Amino acid sequence: MERPRSDDLRETPLFTPASPMLLAASEGEGGFHAPTVADFFPPAIFFEGTVFEFNRVMLIRVIAAVVLLTVFVIAARRAKLVPGRFQNVVEMILDFVRNAIAIEVLGEKNGRKYFFLLATIFCTVLVMNITSVVPFLNLAGTSVIGLPIVLAAWTYVMYLGAGVKAQGFGGFLKSSLFPPGVPKVLYLLLTPIEFLQVFVLRPATLVIRLLANMVAGHLMLAICFTATSFFLFDSAGAMKLFGAGTLVAGFAFFLFEVFVAALQAYVFAILTAVYLNMSIEAEH
Amino acid sequence: MSSPLDSSAAVMAAEETQQNILLPHPPDIIWSLVIVVIIGLVFYKYALPKFQAVLDERTAKIEGGLAKAEQAQEEAAAALEEYHQQLAEARADAAKTREEARAEGTAIVAELRSKAQEEAGRIVETAHRQIEAERQTAAVSLRAEVGALATELASKIVGESLEDSARQSRVVDRFLDELEASQTASATTSAGKEG
């Protein structure tokens, strides 16, 4: 996390009332570089200034995508009736998506129909999240808003499309904006809420939930490891002991980040399935 | 310079700069879209169909195998049942045959016994009859010879022939009568002993 801009720390959103205490410890030696939001906006590598500007985050995403596709294409090419160990692992992931997400939420028929969508979304989110704990990458592909937006937009289009296809345009609008079994007066209150819910909040929460989790995870990890580095190499005497504490905390956050990466992939996929189900079934 | 108010002002300021994490940049969106489209294409067109085909084939194989095993088991059960039935039939047949043979044997023995008894009775009868005939023959020849012998013997003993033939005949008759009486008596006793 080497950055040339440790001086304008105060101008970043992460600068909180608690920050001065950390700074007080670091300012003397000038060795502590707290992680900032700037981590997510690295300088361009290619095409600077154009719409194809390519930076470190894009590179991480490309690497993750290449790894994901390599694994799946090799596994698919070698796919046999009696699976080997490697095929078993890939099949375990797909089986999980099919049984625990697709069929569990959407039922047998629709679960099979939307299995490809859910598997693609789950695997993409998982591999893009997991880069946050991969050495030298150290940043989740989903911790910059573009990718969550693209994935949520895909989900958005799919569940709106599924609703229109299943109930017709009017039927879908009616069943989502005017939920049955409610006194007519309440529609004054309910319809705007339902409208917000279906057309704005669902995709927005998908984006923000994933993004915020991965941003927070990266910041926690970065704080723990930069603090460890600072305590061990830049502080004097007993202060070095804090380094052990922050190192342990960093390792704990590393494990936690792995868990969060998998959990957020699961949450994204299962919410996609739930939204699809709500669109397909008239009553919800 | 670092009061909470200032820092919140800094946040507000930062949100207007390029570094707001909630504001997407066109390159970010474009590259994300490219990556998602590529992943989606490979997954939809190649990887997932391949896996689904393999998984479906495996399911079919397993189901087919199970059905086949079930069928084989049913067949085996049927064969066992048939075998048991045949065994029972064979046992019943054997028992019946044995019973029949025993009955037949008994009948044969009984028949043979009755035949033998009949035969024995007949033999005894024949023997009785023969004996009777021989006795009568003997009696007739005795009756013829004993008179002459006795007369001859008596004339030899007396030394003179008896001139009166009438008297002679009377004497012989009386003698024979006596003889016959004693003989009948002895024959009756001997016949009683035999019966």
Automatic annotation (TrEMBL), chain B:
Pfam families (UniProt xref): ATP-synt_B
Cellular localisation: Cell membrane
Subunit structure of this chain's protein: F-type ATPases have 2 components, F(1) - the catalytic core - and F(0) - the membrane proton channel. F(1) has five subunits: alpha(3), beta(3), gamma(1), delta(1), epsilon(1). F(0) has three main subunits: a(1), b(2) and c(10-14). The alpha and beta chains form an alternating ring which encloses part of the gamma chain. F(1) is attached to F(0) by a central stalk formed by the gamma and epsilon chains, while a peripheral stalk is formed by the delta and b chains.
Gene3D superfamilies per record: F1F0 ATP synthase subunit B, membrane domain
Record key words, sorted: ATP synthesis, Cell membrane, CF(0), Coiled coil, Hydrogen ion transport, Ion transport, Membrane, Transmembrane, Transmembrane helix, Transport
Membrane topology annotation: Single-pass membrane protein
Coiled-coil intervals, chain numbering: 62-104
Designated name of the protein: ATP synthase subunit b
Biological role: Component of the F(0) channel, it forms part of the peripheral stalk, linking F(1) to F(0).
Organism: Isoptericola luteus
Residues that span the membrane, as ranges: 29-48
Family membership noted in the UniProt record: Belongs to the ATPase B chain family.
SUPFAM superfamilies found in the cross-reference section: F1F0 ATP synthase subunit B, membrane domain (SSF81573)
Keyword DNA repair carried by entry: no
